[in-house]
Design goal:
Elements: E1 12-16, H1 21-32, E2 36-41, H2 44-56, E3 61-65, H3 71-85, E4 90-93, E5 99-100, H4 108-118, H5 120-135, E6 139-144, H6 157-176, E7 182-189, H7 196-199, E8 201-202, E9 206-208, E10 214-215, H8 217-229, E11 234-237, H9 239-250, H10 252-266, E12 268-273, E13 301-302, H11 306-311, H12 315-334
Parallel strand pairs: 1-2, 1-4, 2-3, 4-6, 5-8, 6-7, 7-11, 10-13
Antiparallel strand pairs: 9-12
């Protein structure tokens, strides 16, 4: 069934993880586009500050302090949206957190906290959205995964596991919703310049880092808002994400060796020893780091992505490009194959 989605300026959008990084940029960008927003995060004070900012710009914003790992909290988000606006057109499951360290170092408690937010938060949000959208005319569910949804990396194993789980859950739910007026999209960003590393708990010797190239969070926000208007299956943000996914599927063992050689170095800042008193936002928000869109990592941030620009082109353009590639492949397959003649 073809799902018809509203234009952004006609939409009511629920957005989790709204007070930092990708969520914060998406909230501000959506507000500029005329979206009526239901903003959710753990820090109620940060939410109120953000909502006041957006209202001063003429946007309509409702806030709900909630922990997405708690299903009752997520139910409150949905009910607040219905009571205020009467429907939900797009629900973005964006809230996420991480832990750096080897599998042997990270405690089970911290692993479970990552899964509660990153995986169960998506489950709670998606199922709440499905229930309410079926009652109020359908809509779009957008789950923010990662390039590690397709290919795990060392030192953030639990984070990768949670994003693998998000992918599997999203794909299964999409098939089950085939006849519903609900679009379900998985967004898979590469390394994004957000406070993710500062919010993550760290067991390593040095401060966490992100492997380059690093992309601007505005690119993810643009991709999310595209999926809110246009039904899409999977969208990558950054050519690196598409490359890692492809290499993981086609050349898994060589990619293992490449990651062993590079990842342990790229995921740490060798000139920044880990501070034993370092604060993080794993089990509770860190007010000092809320309402920050970007981090201060010592890398260039790419403001554009050629691959992402291709993905967001109109369907006719993509059809021509993909169709040409398929036609060329078909012609190659139609060439007479040489026969191997075996002689006894």
């Amino acid at each position: 069934m073809s799902v018809k989605l509203k234009k952004l300026n006609e939409q009511v959008m629920v957005l989790t993880g709204a007070t930092s990084g990708i969520g914060l940029v998406t909230a501000r960008t959506a507000a500029e586009a005329g979206v009526r927003l239901v903003l959710a995060a753990r820090d109620g004070d940060a939410l109120d500050t953000l909502a006041q900012e957006l209202r001063q710009r003429g946007a309509e914003a409702l806030t709900v302090a909630a922990d997405v790992g708690n299903p009752a909290d997520v139910e409150r988000i949905g009910q607040a949206a219905i009571e205020r606006f009467g429907r939900i057109d797009t629900w973005v499951n964006n809230a996420g957190i991480g832990v750096y360290g080897s599998q042997e170092q990270v405690t089970l408690e911290d692993m479970q906290r990552v899964m509660a937010t990153n995986f169960w938060g998506v489950v709670h949000g998606s199922l709440t959205a499905v229930k309410l959208m079926k009652q109020h005319g359908g809509g779009a569910i957008i789950n923010v995964g990662s390039e590690v949804s397709d290919r795990a990396v060392p030192l953030i194993g639990t984070y990768a596991a949670s994003k693998h789980a998000v992918k599997a859950f999203t794909e299964s739910l999409r098939m089950e919703l085939e006849k519903a007026q609900i679009s379900l999209t998985l967004i898979k960003p590469a390394s994004i310049d957000t406070p993710f590393t500062a919010h993550a708990r760290n067991y390593m010797e040095y401060e966490p880092d992100l492997p380059p190239p690093i992309y601007a969070p505005e690119l993810v926000a643009k991709t999310i808002l595209h999926a809110a208007e246009t039904p899409e299956r999977d969208l990558f943000v950054g050519g690196r994400a598409r490359l890692i996914s492809t290499l993981g599927a086609v050349l898994p063992r060589p990619l293992d060796r490449l990651m062993r050689a590079a990842a342990f170095r790229q995921e740490q800042q060798p000139d920044q020893p880990n501070n034993p008193d370092r604060r993080d936002a794993l089990h509770a928000p860190d007010p000092a780091r809320e309402l920050q869109q970007r981090n201060d990592l010592p890398h260039k941030t790419f403001e554009r992505s050629v691959y992402q620009a291709y993905q967001l082109r109109s369907t006719p353009v993509k059809t021509v490009l993909v169709g040409g590639a398929l036609l060329a492949a078909w012609r190659l397959m139609r060439r007479p194959a040489q026969r191997n003649v075996w002689h006894a």
